[in-house]
Every structure is written in structure tokens, then in C-alpha cells.
Amino acid sequence: MVTIKDVAKATGVSPSTVSRVIADNPRISPDTKKKVRKAMKDLGYHTNISARNLVVKSTKAIGVIMPSSADKALQNPFFPEILRGIGSVTHRMKYSVTLSSGQTEEEIYEEVQRMVFGSYVDGVILLYSRLNDRVTNFLIERGFPFVIVGKPYENVNGITHVDNDNFTAGKEITEHLIDQGHEKIAFIGGSKDLFVTIDREAGYEAALQEAGHEVSDSYKIHTEFLKSGGREAVENLMSLKTPPTGIVVSDDLMSVGVLSMLEESGVKVPRDVSLVSFNNVYLSEIILPALTTVDIQIHELGAQSAKALIEKTVNKTEPVKRISIPYEIVYRDSVSRLP
Amino acid sequence: MVTIKDVAKATGVSPSTVSRVIADNPRISPDTKKKVRKAMKDLGYHTNISARNLVVKSTKAIGVIMPSSADKALQNPFFPEILRGIGSVTHRMKYSVTLSSGQTEEEIYEEVQRMVFGSYVDGVILLYSRLNDRVTNFLIERGFPFVIVGKPYENVNGITHVDNDNFTAGKEITEHLIDQGHEKIAFIGGSKDLFVTIDREAGYEAALQEAGHEVSDSYKIHTEFLKSGGREAVENLMSLKTPPTGIVVSDDLMSVGVLSMLEESGVKVPRDVSLVSFNNVYLSEIILPALTTVDIQIHELGAQSAKALIEKTVNKTEPVKRISIPYEIVYRDSVSRLP
DNA sequence: CTGTTAGCGCGTTCAC
DNA sequence: GTGAACGCGCTAACAG
User: Fold this and answer.
1) Which of strand D's nucleotides are less than 7 A from any protein C-beta?
2) What are the domain boundaries of chain A?
3) Structure confidence at residue B227 (pLDDT)
4) What's the CATH class of domain B4-45?
5) Does domain B61-159+299-324 have CATH number 1.10.10.60?
6) CA atoms within 13 A on the CB side of B56
């Protein structure tokens, strides 16, 4: 391994000078810079990150914490996409990304501990938000920089997070259904202790109420991830005395499941029932019918969270921020107009 | 930050003793161990990873390199799953995972350089395999430990990689179609410079030939990822004088696209045409019809690659390995028996 | 503008 | 069984 000393020796300067040209210190003469740079290239010098980290007490690395695999959501294309969003800014800023690898809540907690205590990373992005989460509490206690993608459960004004306005998005997409003449509209969401679900559902209800349409409990179903359980729920829903003509589903992937169940029961989308959902994942475009869905700009969600985090790590006094990423409804073929 | 010295002072021993109990050195008396450990806990000591890395010249970290986003495949649920597989062993071994964040081939190349030269990681997992890849060549030149998930393009016997036997898998799944009475079988695959595609396709052809069925070029279509271009291709396929009654698709996600196009053209699966594919991603289970597909055990692919890599990093003389992960066909509802 | 010195936190001789 | 001393590669004063 070629070190700063080697370069120094080869150039006939001192190690600190070499260090300075690496930092592009303005007080170094252009000549020596040139010389040193040449030597670095010739010798194949590359700065040793551990050594630097040790002294500057910073790692230029951020940790990204995925939800525990209890949240089966991992199969959701949401994650690769948000990772890419994060990557787009970390790469630009020459930061690196350390991914959590724990599967259970406990494992993740330990991992985050190592990350912060061991000085693995300068800050952390939480890709989930759970009530009473040990990790979150830990981070707060330690005053360690972190941002949440989504809405924090507690201390909303004290935790910088980046999110969509899921309430309004839910309202708007429901209104679209209403505009198309639908009155009987159902909601199918994931676990109701996820804020996304709660917010989107609240928006759905608001739209209904504003329009003066009934919001009935039998129209709202929550199901982990669509398998056996979800199937019954959907069947029940459609065999109500007055089945819905429109459904708001909280997530594209879930929509795929709902779609299958619906078709299986002989109801066609959008002929018999209209469907809208959220995320605008690639999938929603290639499925039949293509989904009308709200594009929440996952990539941007990731990018902004990384940006906010990095700002926080370089400037600890950076104020808490609530960043809202605009969404946009993309209209496709899963909705039909009612007479 | 509480260091080894602090613990030493608090315990009345020397720093080196503390270091030894951390390493669980057997020549330390149980008593002092106990004492020191208590102090560590009390003071909240955590070993500083940078400092340790600096001296031991190892990072206990591995880099995971995703394909450039030119390979639009990133939306594929394959990636989160393989990441989880990798995570399952890195976590157990207390390794950490650094994710590449570059988007273009060039960016990724630079990134890998930093990773290896800067001693960010001990080894690297390549989640793709491209012909004449700079990254691969670089890694080889430097003699840096790495493993490929998939089949290397060159030097197959010189690069440890973990893969499925895609040829046989392709053959077997095609044979399943044949067993069900199909003779006219088409193949739809992704880019034909991906080895997965090549191998699976070869298997498909082999099955056909062995069964004495025609393998026609007009039955083989390659399309990046199914959008406009793919649509036409599928339409052409189905409007051949003798359209296929069965289709082998190289990937579940792609199957979803094919399925849509088929239905759009009024052909029903599996009534009019049978469909099989690969990967057994969660999606293939919730779609209608549920896909008959070969489960390639993505999670295991990830886990084994991490395991192999770690072994390589701890023991540089570890021999090159070709690890083949068994696959298994899971039979669902996308195939019908021909009379 | 540049060199010298010191020290980041840890592991590892080599003594005792 | 334990301590003292040194060095990993780098940056940051402090000189000059």
C-alpha cells in the first residue's frame, strides 16, 4: 500500500504537504501541487479512509436502515428505487452507503448501535417509521443525526423527515373517483399502524365526506399483505348488498393482488369496479389494466432524505425540517366513468 | 467518545490489557476480564472501527455492486431479496455492507476503485455480469477478492461465482410444458447479452430438440424490458400462422408484462396459451393467473455469495468456487394441459 | 508557502 | 498475567 509518506519521499516534500495538496489547500504552490499530483498518480496513491476517518472523526458514510423483514414489504419495488434515489446524492457528494442487514427488530437495533458507537457512519436514514421504535428513540437520545422517510410517530416537529402529503394525495385520488361519478368507494390498506395507510385513508374519508357520500366501516379493509386473508376480505367486500364501484388501494403492489382477486371473482376492472392506488411503481404501468395511481416520486424521496441528512451531519445545528415531496396523479386505465 | 484508555484508567489496568479482553485473549485472568468488561459496559465503551481497521488492515465490510441503471432491471424485486440474502450472513458474521450508488458504468467503476484502494471493504459482490466489464477486469488485475452472482463471461473457472444451473432449469421448465402436451413453444427473454437469458434459452432449445419439436427463430423474441417494443413483438408472435401454445419467459416481472399484452390481444392464460417463467418473486404468487415458475432461491443466492466472499477475504488462498444453487419448479396456474 | 511535531484509537510486539 | 512502547496512515496545529 502506497502511503502519503511514499509520495512525499518521491516528491521530496513532507508528508503534510502531500496531505495539503490532497485537501487542495490554497496555500500550496501550483508547482508543488503539480509535482505531488503526478507522483500520486505514478505511484498509484489512494488515501486510506480509515486513517483519515480516525483523525477527522467523520466517515462520509451514511447508514440506511431497512424495515425488519416482519414488514414483508421488502419485496416492494419501493426499496430499490429509494435506494437509487439515495445513491444519486450520496454518490455526487462522495459519500458511501452502509445498508442495514438485520432481519429482526432486535438485530437492527444492535446494528444501529454498532453503526453509531463504532463510528461507522455520520448519520442514518430510517426507511420506516414505527410507533415506539427503539431505534428511533436511541437515535434521539444520542442526538445522532438521522432522518426518516415517512412520517414520525412522535415528535413530528422534532424529527426531520421527508414524506409526501399522503392525506391530500389520498383525498385527491379519491376525488378523482368521485369526479368520475363514483359514490360507493372502498379503501383497502395495509397494516393500520403504518402512517402511510392512516394518512391516505384519512384523505379518502375526507373526500367522501366533503362530497357527502357515505363512509362505511364495511368499506374499509386492512390486510397485511394480500394472501389468503386478503382474499376473503375482498370477497366479502364485493358481496355486500351494495358493493363499491370504486376502490382506493394504498399501494401498487397490493393493487396487483386486489386485481387478481377481483378478476377471480369475475369482476372486471375497470368495467365493474374502478381501482386507484399509490406509488407508481414500474409494475403499475405494465399490468393490465395499467393503474391510475399517484406518483409519489420515490426516487426524489430518497434523494431528498439523503440530502437533508448530509446537511445535518455537516452542520449539526441545521434546523429540523419537514420536507414534502410533491406527488402527481398519473391517469391510466383502471378507472371508468360512471353514468 | 470513550476509548480504551478510559476503560483502562477506570479499571486500573493498562490499555493493552483492555485491548486483550476485547480480543478475549486467553492469557488474561478471568477476574480482570470481568472487571474490565464491567467498566466497558458502565462507561459505554464501543470500539472505534476506524482505529481498528487502520491497524488490522481489514474492514469487515463488503461492497455490493448493483448493475448500472442502464440495466433498468433495478425495479426487479430480485434485488431487495438478494440484498436480504446477503444481509443474513453478513449480519451473522458481523460484517457490514456498503452499497454502490453509482448510476452509470463509469460512476460505478470509480466507486469500486475508491472502495478497494481506499480500503473501504475487504471484498466485493458483483450483482451483474457483463462482457468485458471494466470493474471485473480491475478486480482481477488487483487480485481483489470478489464474487459474481451469475455466470462470468470470461474466465469462468477463475472467478468464484454463485449461480443457478439456468440451462437445466430452462430445459426442465420447458419440458414441463412439453409434458403437458405443448409443442409450439416460444421464448421471450431480456437482453441477449445477459447470461441468464442465454442459458435459459439454450435450455429451452435443448428441451425442444430432445422432444423432436421445432425450434424456430420466429418463436424467440428478445426485448429490453417490456414496453412499446415488446408489445409489438408479442403481437407478432401471436399472429403467426401457427402461434405458440406455450411461452417460456425469462423472468417473472417480464411475465407480468407479457400477460398484460396477451390479455389485451384477447388471448387468455392459460386457456389459450400457457406461460412459465423464472425467479418466483412474490409477485408471481399474487398475480392472476399465479405463475408456474422456477424458484431460483434468490435469498440463498445472496447468502451463498456473501459466505463465499467472506471466506475468500479471510483466507486469500481459498480456491475458486463455482457454487450452484438448486432451483425448484413451483407449479401454479399459468399452464394448461393440451389434449 | 512548507516542514516538524503530535496524536487520533487501537493492536501488537517485547519485556517483566 | 500484565504493562510500556511503538506504529498503522493521516491531519492539524505550530513554526518558520
Assistant:
1) 1-5, 7-13
2) 4-45, 61-159+299-324, 166-296
3) 60
4) mainly alpha
5) no
6) 14
